[in-house]
Design brief:
It is built from 12 helices and 14 strands. The protein is α+β, with helices and mostly antiparallel strands and 292 residues long. The protein has 3 domains: 51 residues, 2-Layer Sandwich (Uridine Diphospho-n-acetylenolpyruvylglucosamine Reductase, domain 2); 114 residues, Uridine Diphospho-n-acetylenolpyruvylglucosamine Reductase, domain 3 (2-Layer Sandwich), CATH 3.30.465; 107 residues, Enolase-like, domain 1 (2-Layer Sandwich), CATH 3.30.390. The strands form 4 sheets. The chain has a 5-stranded antiparallel beta sheet. A hairpin with a 2-residue loop joins strand 8 and strand 9. The model has no long low-confidence stretch (mean pLDDT 94). Bound molecules: flavin-adenine dinucleotide (FAD). The site of flavin-adenine dinucleotide has 30 residues, from strand 2, helix 2, helix 8 and strand 10. Flavin-adenine dinucleotide (FAD) binds next to strand 2, helix 2, helix 8 and strand 10.
Protein backbone atom coordinates (compact mmCIF):
# COMPACT_ATOMS: atom_id res chain seq x y z
CA UNK A 1 0.00 0.00 0.00
CA UNK A 2 1.16 3.53 -0.87
CA UNK A 3 2.89 5.50 1.92
CA UNK A 4 1.16 8.30 3.82
CA UNK A 5 2.81 11.68 3.12
CA UNK A 6 1.54 13.11 6.42
CA UNK A 7 3.83 10.63 8.21
CA UNK A 8 6.95 12.10 6.60
CA UNK A 9 8.66 15.43 7.12
CA UNK A 10 10.72 16.92 4.26
CA UNK A 11 13.06 19.88 4.59
CA UNK A 12 15.17 21.46 1.86
CA UNK A 13 17.71 23.83 3.45
CA UNK A 14 19.45 24.52 0.10
CA UNK A 15 22.81 24.87 1.92
CA UNK A 16 25.38 22.17 2.52
CA UNK A 17 26.35 23.34 6.03
CA UNK A 18 22.70 23.31 7.11
CA UNK A 19 22.25 19.74 5.80
CA UNK A 20 25.38 18.59 7.65
CA UNK A 21 24.28 20.29 10.88
CA UNK A 22 20.95 18.53 10.66
CA UNK A 23 22.55 15.12 10.06
CA UNK A 24 24.90 15.68 13.03
CA UNK A 25 22.23 17.03 15.39
CA UNK A 26 20.27 13.78 15.68
CA UNK A 27 22.33 10.90 14.29
CA UNK A 28 20.19 8.56 12.20
CA UNK A 29 17.05 10.69 12.45
CA UNK A 30 17.35 12.30 9.00
CA UNK A 31 17.64 10.56 5.63
CA UNK A 32 19.17 12.45 2.69
CA UNK A 33 17.07 12.48 -0.49
CA UNK A 34 18.66 13.46 -3.82
CA UNK A 35 16.73 12.59 -7.01
CA UNK A 36 14.31 10.44 -5.04
CA UNK A 37 14.10 7.75 -7.73
CA UNK A 38 14.84 5.04 -5.15
CA UNK A 39 13.18 6.60 -2.12
CA UNK A 40 9.95 7.59 -3.89
CA UNK A 41 9.57 4.06 -5.27
CA UNK A 42 9.85 2.84 -1.67
CA UNK A 43 7.31 5.48 -0.58
CA UNK A 44 4.84 4.46 -3.28
CA UNK A 45 5.20 0.83 -2.23
CA UNK A 46 4.53 1.80 1.40
CA UNK A 47 7.97 0.70 2.57
CA UNK A 48 9.80 4.00 3.07
CA UNK A 49 11.24 3.76 6.58
CA UNK A 50 12.43 7.40 6.74
CA UNK A 51 10.11 9.70 8.68
CA UNK A 52 12.40 12.72 8.21
CA UNK A 53 13.95 13.55 4.85
CA UNK A 54 16.50 16.24 4.09
CA UNK A 55 16.73 17.21 0.43
CA UNK A 56 20.07 17.69 -1.32
CA UNK A 57 18.60 19.70 -4.17
CA UNK A 58 19.53 23.32 -4.81
CA UNK A 59 23.09 22.97 -3.45
CA UNK A 60 25.34 23.92 -6.40
CA UNK A 61 28.54 22.37 -4.89
CA UNK A 62 26.90 18.97 -4.80
CA UNK A 63 25.90 19.06 -8.47
CA UNK A 64 29.10 20.50 -9.96
CA UNK A 65 31.34 18.57 -12.35
CA UNK A 66 34.81 20.06 -12.00
CA UNK A 67 37.61 19.31 -14.45
CA UNK A 68 41.02 19.60 -12.76
CA UNK A 69 44.40 19.02 -14.44
CA UNK A 70 44.63 15.41 -13.20
CA UNK A 71 41.09 14.49 -12.22
CA UNK A 72 37.41 14.97 -12.89
CA UNK A 73 35.45 15.60 -9.69
CA UNK A 74 31.75 14.79 -9.92
CA UNK A 75 29.41 16.17 -7.26
CA UNK A 76 27.29 13.41 -5.74
CA UNK A 77 24.05 15.11 -6.84
CA UNK A 78 25.08 15.34 -10.51
CA UNK A 79 22.39 13.58 -12.50
CA UNK A 80 22.98 10.95 -15.14
CA UNK A 81 21.81 13.45 -17.76
CA UNK A 82 24.47 15.89 -16.47
CA UNK A 83 27.04 13.13 -17.02
CA UNK A 84 25.77 12.25 -20.50
CA UNK A 85 25.95 15.90 -21.56
CA UNK A 86 29.43 16.61 -20.19
CA UNK A 87 32.03 16.83 -22.95
CA UNK A 88 35.06 15.71 -20.90
CA UNK A 89 33.16 12.85 -19.26
CA UNK A 90 32.11 11.68 -22.74
CA UNK A 91 35.62 12.00 -24.19
CA UNK A 92 37.78 10.73 -21.31
CA UNK A 93 35.44 8.58 -19.22
CA UNK A 94 33.30 7.01 -21.94
CA UNK A 95 32.37 3.98 -19.81
CA UNK A 96 30.69 6.26 -17.28
CA UNK A 97 28.88 8.22 -20.00
CA UNK A 98 27.65 4.95 -21.50
CA UNK A 99 26.52 3.60 -18.12
CA UNK A 100 24.64 6.89 -17.54
CA UNK A 101 22.74 6.33 -20.79
CA UNK A 102 21.55 2.93 -19.49
CA UNK A 103 19.84 4.22 -16.33
CA UNK A 104 16.08 3.78 -16.75
CA UNK A 105 14.62 6.32 -19.17
CA UNK A 106 15.50 9.97 -19.94
CA UNK A 107 12.97 10.98 -17.26
CA UNK A 108 14.92 8.92 -14.70
CA UNK A 109 18.26 10.23 -15.90
CA UNK A 110 17.15 13.81 -15.40
CA UNK A 111 16.54 13.19 -11.67
CA UNK A 112 18.60 10.14 -10.67
CA UNK A 113 21.99 11.08 -9.22
CA UNK A 114 25.35 9.34 -9.27
CA UNK A 115 25.61 9.60 -5.46
CA UNK A 116 22.15 8.08 -5.00
CA UNK A 117 23.09 5.16 -7.25
CA UNK A 118 26.21 4.43 -5.15
CA UNK A 119 24.68 4.92 -1.70
CA UNK A 120 21.66 2.81 -2.63
CA UNK A 121 24.27 0.13 -3.34
CA UNK A 122 22.36 -2.27 -5.56
CA UNK A 123 24.65 -5.11 -6.70
CA UNK A 124 23.34 -4.34 -10.22
CA UNK A 125 23.92 -0.55 -10.14
CA UNK A 126 24.86 0.55 -13.65
CA UNK A 127 27.39 3.22 -12.70
CA UNK A 128 29.44 1.04 -10.35
CA UNK A 129 31.50 -1.18 -12.71
CA UNK A 130 32.66 1.87 -14.70
CA UNK A 131 33.69 3.73 -11.52
CA UNK A 132 35.58 0.69 -10.24
CA UNK A 133 37.37 0.27 -13.56
CA UNK A 134 38.40 3.94 -13.42
CA UNK A 135 39.75 3.59 -9.86
CA UNK A 136 37.33 6.18 -8.48
CA UNK A 137 37.70 7.67 -5.01
CA UNK A 138 34.78 8.71 -2.87
CA UNK A 139 34.91 12.00 -0.95
CA UNK A 140 32.78 11.97 2.19
CA UNK A 141 31.80 15.05 4.20
CA UNK A 142 30.35 15.74 7.66
CA UNK A 143 30.62 18.45 10.33
CA UNK A 144 33.72 16.54 11.46
CA UNK A 145 35.50 17.20 8.15
CA UNK A 146 36.22 15.36 4.91
CA UNK A 147 37.73 11.96 4.18
CA UNK A 148 38.40 9.94 1.03
CA UNK A 149 38.08 6.21 0.44
CA UNK A 150 38.75 4.16 -2.68
CA UNK A 151 35.42 3.28 -4.27
CA UNK A 152 36.52 -0.39 -4.18
CA UNK A 153 36.33 -0.15 -0.35
CA UNK A 154 33.06 1.84 -0.16
CA UNK A 155 30.56 -1.04 -0.15
CA UNK A 156 30.82 -3.32 2.88
CA UNK A 157 27.88 -5.70 2.30
CA UNK A 158 24.51 -5.93 0.57
CA UNK A 159 23.28 -2.29 0.51
CA UNK A 160 25.76 -1.36 3.23
CA UNK A 161 28.65 1.10 2.98
CA UNK A 162 31.21 2.99 5.04
CA UNK A 163 29.08 6.13 5.57
CA UNK A 164 28.23 7.05 9.16
CA UNK A 165 24.81 8.49 9.92
CA UNK A 166 26.15 12.07 10.00
CA UNK A 167 28.02 11.76 6.68
CA UNK A 168 27.13 12.58 3.09
CA UNK A 169 28.72 11.28 -0.06
CA UNK A 170 30.13 14.58 -1.32
CA UNK A 171 31.92 13.80 -4.61
CA UNK A 172 33.43 11.13 -6.82
CA UNK A 173 37.05 11.68 -7.96
CA UNK A 174 38.16 10.10 -11.24
CA UNK A 175 41.75 10.24 -12.47
CA UNK A 176 42.33 11.62 -16.00
CA UNK A 177 44.77 8.95 -17.13
CA UNK A 178 42.93 6.46 -19.29
CA UNK A 179 43.56 7.91 -22.75
CA UNK A 180 45.91 5.06 -23.72
CA UNK A 181 43.98 2.32 -21.95
CA UNK A 182 41.72 -0.20 -23.62
CA UNK A 183 38.31 0.44 -22.03
CA UNK A 184 35.55 -2.16 -21.95
CA UNK A 185 31.97 -2.22 -20.62
CA UNK A 186 29.18 -4.69 -21.33
CA UNK A 187 25.81 -5.01 -19.62
CA UNK A 188 23.67 -8.07 -20.21
CA UNK A 189 20.01 -7.54 -19.39
CA UNK A 190 16.64 -8.69 -20.60
CA UNK A 191 16.39 -5.79 -23.06
CA UNK A 192 18.60 -2.99 -24.32
CA UNK A 193 16.66 -0.32 -22.36
CA UNK A 194 14.84 -0.10 -19.01
CA UNK A 195 16.43 -3.31 -17.76
CA UNK A 196 18.48 -4.09 -14.68
CA UNK A 197 21.79 -5.88 -15.31
CA UNK A 198 21.82 -9.66 -15.05
CA UNK A 199 25.59 -9.32 -15.35
CA UNK A 200 27.91 -6.44 -16.23
CA UNK A 201 31.66 -6.34 -16.68
CA UNK A 202 33.94 -3.31 -17.02
CA UNK A 203 37.68 -3.02 -17.52
CA UNK A 204 40.52 -0.64 -18.16
CA UNK A 205 43.79 -2.19 -19.28
CA UNK A 206 47.19 -1.15 -20.49
CA UNK A 207 49.99 -3.25 -22.02
CA UNK A 208 53.53 -2.86 -23.19
CA UNK A 209 55.19 -5.21 -25.67
CA UNK A 210 52.12 -7.43 -25.64
CA UNK A 211 52.19 -7.94 -21.86
CA UNK A 212 49.43 -6.70 -19.56
CA UNK A 213 50.98 -4.07 -17.30
CA UNK A 214 47.81 -2.65 -15.75
CA UNK A 215 44.30 -4.04 -15.48
CA UNK A 216 41.20 -3.20 -13.48
CA UNK A 217 38.23 -5.51 -13.81
CA UNK A 218 34.89 -4.84 -12.18
CA UNK A 219 31.52 -6.54 -12.15
CA UNK A 220 27.88 -5.98 -11.28
CA UNK A 221 25.39 -8.64 -10.18
CA UNK A 222 28.10 -11.18 -9.39
CA UNK A 223 28.35 -10.54 -5.61
CA UNK A 224 26.27 -8.86 -2.85
CA UNK A 225 27.66 -5.50 -4.01
CA UNK A 226 29.54 -4.17 -7.06
CA UNK A 227 33.11 -5.45 -6.85
CA UNK A 228 36.59 -5.30 -8.33
CA UNK A 229 37.72 -8.75 -9.45
CA UNK A 230 41.17 -8.59 -7.87
CA UNK A 231 41.81 -12.36 -8.18
CA UNK A 232 41.10 -12.34 -11.92
CA UNK A 233 43.24 -9.22 -12.33
CA UNK A 234 46.13 -11.07 -10.62
CA UNK A 235 45.81 -13.93 -13.13
CA UNK A 236 46.22 -11.43 -16.00
CA UNK A 237 48.79 -8.99 -14.68
CA UNK A 238 52.24 -9.42 -16.23
CA UNK A 239 50.93 -11.97 -18.75
CA UNK A 240 50.74 -12.00 -22.53
CA UNK A 241 47.19 -12.49 -23.82
CA UNK A 242 47.47 -16.12 -24.89
CA UNK A 243 44.97 -18.96 -24.84
CA UNK A 244 46.58 -20.24 -21.60
CA UNK A 245 46.27 -16.81 -19.95
CA UNK A 246 42.62 -16.61 -20.98
CA UNK A 247 41.96 -20.05 -19.52
CA UNK A 248 43.60 -19.30 -16.18
CA UNK A 249 41.82 -15.91 -15.97
CA UNK A 250 38.52 -17.68 -16.66
CA UNK A 251 39.23 -20.14 -13.83
CA UNK A 252 40.15 -17.26 -11.50
CA UNK A 253 36.94 -15.41 -12.35
CA UNK A 254 34.76 -18.48 -11.77
CA UNK A 255 36.45 -19.02 -8.39
CA UNK A 256 35.99 -15.39 -7.43
CA UNK A 257 32.41 -14.47 -8.33
CA UNK A 258 29.47 -15.26 -6.03
CA UNK A 259 26.28 -14.70 -8.00
CA UNK A 260 22.85 -15.71 -6.73
CA UNK A 261 19.59 -16.97 -8.23
CA UNK A 262 16.94 -14.23 -8.24
CA UNK A 263 13.93 -13.04 -10.25
CA UNK A 264 16.17 -11.73 -13.03
CA UNK A 265 18.47 -14.69 -13.60
CA UNK A 266 20.21 -17.75 -12.19
CA UNK A 267 23.63 -17.96 -10.59
CA UNK A 268 24.72 -20.47 -13.23
CA UNK A 269 23.71 -18.21 -16.14
CA UNK A 270 25.51 -15.27 -14.52
CA UNK A 271 28.72 -17.28 -14.05
CA UNK A 272 28.73 -18.46 -17.67
CA UNK A 273 27.95 -15.05 -19.11
CA UNK A 274 30.60 -13.37 -16.92
CA UNK A 275 33.23 -15.84 -18.15
CA UNK A 276 32.14 -15.24 -21.76
CA UNK A 277 32.38 -11.47 -21.28
CA UNK A 278 35.91 -11.93 -19.96
CA UNK A 279 36.76 -13.93 -23.12
CA UNK A 280 35.27 -11.14 -25.21
CA UNK A 281 37.38 -8.56 -23.38
CA UNK A 282 40.58 -10.59 -23.85
CA UNK A 283 39.78 -11.14 -27.52
CA UNK A 284 39.33 -7.42 -28.02
CA UNK A 285 42.66 -6.80 -26.26
CA UNK A 286 44.39 -9.16 -28.68
CA UNK A 287 42.72 -7.51 -31.65
CA UNK A 288 43.80 -4.08 -30.44
CA UNK A 289 47.39 -5.36 -30.66
CA UNK A 290 48.24 -3.38 -27.56
CA UNK A 291 49.76 -0.63 -29.63
CA UNK A 292 47.77 2.26 -28.19
C1 LIG B 1 11.90 3.40 -13.36
C2 LIG B 1 13.28 3.27 -12.77
C3 LIG B 1 14.30 2.72 -13.54
C4 LIG B 1 15.59 2.60 -13.03
N1 LIG B 1 16.56 2.06 -13.82
C5 LIG B 1 17.82 1.91 -13.33
C6 LIG B 1 18.85 1.34 -14.14
O1 LIG B 1 18.64 0.99 -15.30
N2 LIG B 1 20.08 1.20 -13.59
C7 LIG B 1 20.36 1.61 -12.30
O2 LIG B 1 21.50 1.47 -11.85
N3 LIG B 1 19.40 2.15 -11.51
C8 LIG B 1 18.15 2.31 -11.99
N4 LIG B 1 17.16 2.84 -11.20
C9 LIG B 1 17.48 3.19 -9.82
C10 LIG B 1 17.74 4.68 -9.51
O3 LIG B 1 17.26 5.54 -10.52
C11 LIG B 1 19.24 4.94 -9.27
O4 LIG B 1 19.74 4.13 -8.24
C12 LIG B 1 19.50 6.42 -8.93
O5 LIG B 1 20.83 6.70 -9.31
C13 LIG B 1 19.28 6.79 -7.47
O6 LIG B 1 19.63 8.16 -7.30
P1 LIG B 1 18.64 9.19 -6.60
O7 LIG B 1 19.34 10.48 -6.55
O8 LIG B 1 17.31 9.18 -7.24
O9 LIG B 1 18.56 8.52 -5.14
P2 LIG B 1 17.56 8.78 -3.94
O10 LIG B 1 16.30 7.97 -4.15
O11 LIG B 1 17.40 10.22 -3.66
O12 LIG B 1 18.42 8.13 -2.75
C14 LIG B 1 18.84 6.77 -2.81
C15 LIG B 1 19.63 6.46 -1.53
O13 LIG B 1 20.84 7.20 -1.52
C16 LIG B 1 20.92 8.05 -0.36
N5 LIG B 1 21.62 9.25 -0.81
C17 LIG B 1 21.42 9.93 -1.97
N6 LIG B 1 22.37 10.86 -2.13
C18 LIG B 1 23.19 10.78 -1.06
C19 LIG B 1 24.39 11.48 -0.67
N7 LIG B 1 24.94 12.44 -1.42
N8 LIG B 1 24.99 11.13 0.50
C20 LIG B 1 24.45 10.15 1.27
N9 LIG B 1 23.34 9.45 0.93
C21 LIG B 1 22.73 9.76 -0.21
C22 LIG B 1 19.49 8.23 0.10
O14 LIG B 1 19.41 8.49 1.48
C23 LIG B 1 18.90 6.86 -0.26
O15 LIG B 1 19.25 5.94 0.73
C24 LIG B 1 15.86 3.00 -11.69
C25 LIG B 1 14.83 3.57 -10.91
C26 LIG B 1 13.55 3.69 -11.43
C27 LIG B 1 12.47 4.27 -10.58
Amino acid sequence: MRGDASKHELVAPGRLDAVLDLLASEPGAWTPIAGGTELMVAFCAGRLDAPRLVSLTGIPDLRAIEVRPHSVVIGSAATFLDLRRHTIVGAELPLLARAASWIGSIANQSRATLGGNLVNGSPAADSSPALLAYDAEIEIISVRGRRRVPYSAFHTGYKRNVLSTDELLYAIHLPRRFERHVQYLRKVGTRRAMAIAKVALAATALAEDGVIREIRLAAASLAPFPTRLFGTEAALLGQAVTRETAQSARRALLAEVKPIDDIRSTAEYRRRVAANLLDELLLSLRREGWQR
